[in-house]
Amino acid sequence: MKKLLDRNLKAFLLYALVVFLASVPAYFLIVDFIWRTELHEHNEIVAMRAKENFQRLSGDTAALNASIDAWNRIQPEAGIVPVNAMDEDSVYTVYRYTSLSGHEELDRFHGLISYFTAGGQAYKMTVETNIEESYETISAITAVTALFFLLLLAGFLLLNKKLSKQLWAPFHETVGKLEAYDLKSQSQIPLPQTDIIEFESLHAGIRKLISGNIAAYREQKEFTENASHELQTPLAIVQSKLDLFLQTEGLTEEQSGIIEAANHSLSRVSRINRNLVLLAKIENGQFASEETVEITGIVKELTGEMEDFLTEKNIRLELDAPGTCTVTGNAALVEILLTNLLMNAIRHTPDGGEMRAVISSGSVSIANSGASPLPEDKLFKRFSSAAAHTTGTGLGLAIVRQICQLYGWQVGYGFRDGMHHFTVAFTGGKEE
Amino acid sequence: MKLLVIEDEAELAASITGYLTDYTCETAATFTQALEKIDMYTYDCILLDLTLPGGDGLRLLDMLKKEKRNDGIIIISARNAMEDKITGLTNGADDYIAKPFHLPELAARVYSVIRRKQFSSANVVEQHEVKIDLLSKKVFVEGNEVPLTKKELDLLLYFIGNKNKVISKGALAEHLSGDMADMLDSHAFVYAHIKNLKRKLTEAGYGNYLKNVYGTGYKWEV
């Protein structure tokens, strides 16, 4: 994963590098061309002036010879020698060692060979000028280019860092707000104000999405609430009619069995309904009162009440409570949470199995023996009971999770050493 | 014994009066009707639904308490939030039962409310040879104490409160362990408790009043 600005920066830097690299030969060719042209001109001027002066001395052979001799003595590299015939002018460039410069290295010279006649004799004249060596030119240009490139690089990096911080600040804030958002709060996300078009349109999109979701969520919640509530009375009527029916004189065993079967299903529906109402109430935050609740005591009390079920299934229960564990919350909800976890464990423990409840200062863990791990992602969802033959309502663990969410507790599941472990960590406080 | 059933659902009211045949039942379907009846008569126990056409049942409760009336009051409501329960009970109701409920459960509660109101000084329930001291939670048969567990005593009172009525195993299971009740499929533990209760009472010389009905329920026949 890369940052958006970094991705840009890399492209910019690569392009800059290419341009700088290409500029090196260009600079070199231009500078070298200017050098040569200027020095060629210089050589021509020097030669022309010398030729003129020598030609003026044409009549006086002795003076001419003396001057040529003097010239040759002063400028040994650029000598004037008599030749048999005149020729075309020519130029050359040569590298050689020179003792004059005082250092032992190759120097480059640009020379002009020109011909002239003085006093009937043809002479060849060589004029030479030292020219900056091409490798020196090219390394100087490269060095300067590299320096500028490094300056550019450093500038880019610094600017990028600063811009990234400034430009993306509202974005990061938005991401943070989105991560912390809970649809159940049913409020809009307080998105930061920004004058950047892109972010503002992102915010507008998010706001629209959230309001749609809130509306859908509210509708669904209200439906569950109303439906569950409206079901209570008809359920009560059916229940009472069945109880009444059971009192009828001359009921046969078969009829009685039918009533009992109907009763059984009806009480299951009633429990599902009660739990749905409970879920809706927890979501609505109708359990506002908070008090300090001591976990160990409640667990002991509950396991005492569940004695019948434990004996019935021949389950060994081990309670390990080394420290006291107190939490802040609604006592009824805490009790529901623990009841659901314990009942869930009892229900799914095979006959003759074992259960272990571990209560430490910040968490409670309830384990029961089982065959294979359960799908954790489905466990805490409504009506997703892992076992098909379960007698539960499929809402117990959903209620557990809902209660944990309300108080900001963590509920987790794990399968270790042939046991299902359900753990509630009472960390953090109630989410604001 | 006079009962007033304040319930706007005619069918439910009919079921309740049909079941509670040991008492003289009157019904009221609206807030105004209930108000009239309460003004004119006193009752041993009033079954009060909270959501009524014409007003909130809690207001009736307030009025009864203001007049310092001694009628026993049991709230029967579809509103089963903890807050509603607490409000109802702190405002002076004697008991609270959430819909849907089993009629034997309601009968047992009515029985216990009336018993508390009428025999508050005695706190002793007598049924043929059996005598139950509710304060010390002791059961005597012909003067001899029968050691019963809490659940067995609970069952005994439930049966006495529903004498001559068939009670299903499901209703018994729910009565014994409340919401936890039939989270487990089998009602074997109900059977175990009943067997023990029956054995202990028979051993102490109590007649065989507890009958098994078709294997699906029980009946306390006197």
Describe, in plain words, how this protein is organized in 3D.
The complex is a heterodimer of chains A (432) and B (222). Chain A has 432 residues and is an alpha+beta fold. Chain A folds into three domains: 4-155, Beta-Lactamase (2-Layer Sandwich), CATH 3.30.450; 197-283, Methane Monooxygenase Hydroxylase, Chain G, domain 1 (Up-down Bundle), CATH 1.20.58; 291-425, 2-Layer Sandwich (Heat Shock Protein 90). Chain A contains ten helices and eleven strands. Chain A has helices at 4-56, 61-74, 134-180, 197-245, 253-283, 295-305, 307-313, 331-348, 376-379, 396-407; strands at residues 80-83, 90-97, 106-118, 121-131, 291-294, 316-320, 326-329, 354-359, 363-369, 410-416, 419-425. In chain A, the strands form three sheets. A five-stranded mixed beta sheet of chain A has the order 6-8-9-11-10. The longest helix of chain A has 53 residues, at 4-56. Chain A is rod-shaped, with a radius of gyration of 49 Å. Chain B has eight helices and 14 strands. The two termini of chain B are 19 Å apart. Chain B folds into two domains: 2-119, Rossmann fold (3-Layer(aba) Sandwich); 124-220, Orthogonal Bundle (Arc Repressor Mutant, subunit A), CATH 1.10.10.10. With 222 residues, chain B is of the alpha/beta class. Chain B is globular, with a radius of gyration of 18 Å. In chain B, strand 1 (2-6), helix 1 and strand 2 (24-28) form a beta-alpha-beta unit. Chain B has helices at 10-19, 31-40, 57-66, 82-90, 103-118, 150-161, 169-177, 188-203, and strands at 2-6, 24-28, 45-49, 51-52, 55-56, 72-77, 95-98, 124-127, 130-133, 138-141, 144-146, 166-168, 210-213, 217-220. The interface between A and B is large, with 48 and 47 residues.
